[in-house]
Design brief:
single chain, 465 residues, alpha+beta, Aminopeptidase, Alpha-Beta Plaits, 2 domains, 13 helices, 21% strand
């Protein structure tokens, strides 16, 4: 694959412009106002797969948004790589914190990205990263260097729980049959420190509602005489952690997989600059569960965080009111052996039990998923490692990720294959936040590296057999 760099140099401007067109499409799956944009984006990805060389491309209807399926089968006796990604994006709010409109992509040069970074919602999560795979296929097909079969499954509901994809996978075992699943929806440590994600945390996501009086009340007439749902909710949430930032829900840690001192020591070898970390976030100090490092807190330990809280009057000026209701959305990141259904029930029981007299509590489960670990001695991991070493000039560091991709454990249960998480973004890409971006260098480096995974995976599998 010596001509991959030449191909990139020849077509990189086109690749970037094509990605920019996709990023202009506001495919926000969480907001029905963008429904047509989500559907249009599915069509756009289907077209891109056809143009890249897929012989079969389908837009598969589901109960929700469609799944874009594509395949290039060159020999049924060869292994098959299934590429998974998603074309939906997070809501762009708050809009006033964006330096440029979220769906009007711009390229800006920064100290970290001297070649420029594309600023737009979805640039890194996940349009930019999944499009690397589309362009990698284009190169392999155009240059007759595709060494095995490839299938694509690109969904439109990842940011809202992948509900339709679960049913699709269960109903399409034969269509989706593969030897390995390749995903780029994660990141790496730094541009000069490549890494491969070997673990993902699970997720339990709930909404809570605290109701007091049957209507909003005048705070002067009723203040101090009735329970204020906002005050109560704040106290209940605060009680979910103790003074050591340990989660207080009974049974929460019962099945937590405790890593050995040897494993924790290995994690410490990954490059990490605490002062740079704090400076990048403009914080004076880090925060979290005692007796664990920052990298352990955000990868191998479970967490509980409030993702949103509201109630009462929040408009301009003053309105002295005791709200009838208060609400919050809460997510819990889980580690191996924690079942998200069980954790959700533990939370529900505990939250209802700690409610004081005078209020009613409602817990509404939204979605969740299990954690996942990829063994580093597998052929898939070894192929990915060799691919990074070929293009980066150094072996990647295995790294557990604090985020969640709930569908990954389902893939293994239903399709019987492991997933390899080859991400090319950076933690600083501001995914899910204002000013999300993806380095041009990272985008092109992904396109350069991915074909080598196909090459080495096919070779190693052949040697293994």
């Amino acid at each position: 694959m010596q001509n991959i760099k030449a191909y990139l140099n020849q077509h990189k401007e086109r690749f970037i412009n094509e990605l920019i067109q996709l990023l202009k499409m506001p495919s926000v799956s969480a907001d029905s106002a963008y429904s047509q944009d989500v559907l249009d984006t599915a069509e756009a990805f289907a077209t891109s797969l056809k143009n890249a060389g897929c012989d079969v491309v389908e837009i598969c209807e589901t109960q929700g948004y469609p799944i874009v399926y594509g395949e290039k089968i060159i020999d049924k006796n060869l292994p098959t790589v299934l590429v998974y990604g998603h074309y939906d994006v997070q809501p762009p709010d708050p809009l006033d914190l964006w330096d440029s409109p979220p769906f009007e992509p711009v390229i800006k040069k920064t100290e970290l990205h001297p070649d420029g970074a594309i600023y737009a919602r979805g640039a890194s999560d996940d349009k930019g990263q999944v499009y690397m795979h589309v362009k990698a296929l284009e190169f392999m097909v155009a240059n007759n260097e595709l060494p095995c079969n490839v299938k694509f499954m690109i969904e439109g509901e990842e940011e809202v729980g992948s509900e339709s994809l679960g049913a699709f996978v269960k109903e399409n075992h034969e269509k989706l049959a593969n030897d390995i699943i390749l995903i780029s929806d994660t990141g790496m440590i730094a541009n000069d420190v490549p890494s491969i994600t070997t673990g993902l945390r699970g997720l339990s996501y709930v909404e809570v509602e605290v109701t007091g009086p049957n209507r909003d009340l005048h705070s002067g007439l009723y203040g101090g005489a009735v329970a204020n749902p906002i005050n109560i909710l704040a106290k209940m949430i605060a009680s979910l952690h103790d003074e050591n930032n340990h989660i207080t829900i009974p049974g929460f840690y019962d099945k937590v997989d405790e890593l050995s001192r040897k494993e924790r020591s290995a994690m410490e070898k990954a490059p990490f600059n605490l002062e740079a970390y704090k400076a990048a976030l403009d914080i004076d100090d880090v925060f979290g569960e005692s007796s664990y490092t920052t990298n352990e807190r955000n990868s191998i330990r479970p967490t509980l965080d409030v993702n949103g809280i509201w109630g009462g009057y929040t408009g301009e000026g003053a309105k002295t009111v005791i709200a009838s209701k208060a609400h919050a959305k809460i997510s819990m990141r889980l580690v191996p052996h924690q079942d998200w259904h069980e954790i959700t029930q533990l939370f529900k029981t505990h939250f209802e039990n700690i409610a004081p007299p005078g209020v009613k509590v409602k817990v509404i489960p939204h979605h969740g998923g299990e954690s996942y670990v990829t063994p580093i001695d597998s052929i898939g991991y070894q192929a990915a490692s060799k691919a990074y070493e070929t293009t980066f000039g150094k072996a990647p560091v295995p790294k557990r990720n604090g985020g969640s991709i709930p569908i990954v454990p389902l893939f293994e249960r239903e399709l019987g294959s492991k997933s390899i998480l080859m991400g090319f973004g950076l933690d600083s890409n501001a995914i899910h936040s204002p000013n999300e971006h993806f380095g041009v260098w990272n985008f092109l480096k992904g396109i350069e590296t991915i074909p080598y995974f196909y090459k080495y995976y096919t070779e190693l599998l052949s040697l293994g057999s």
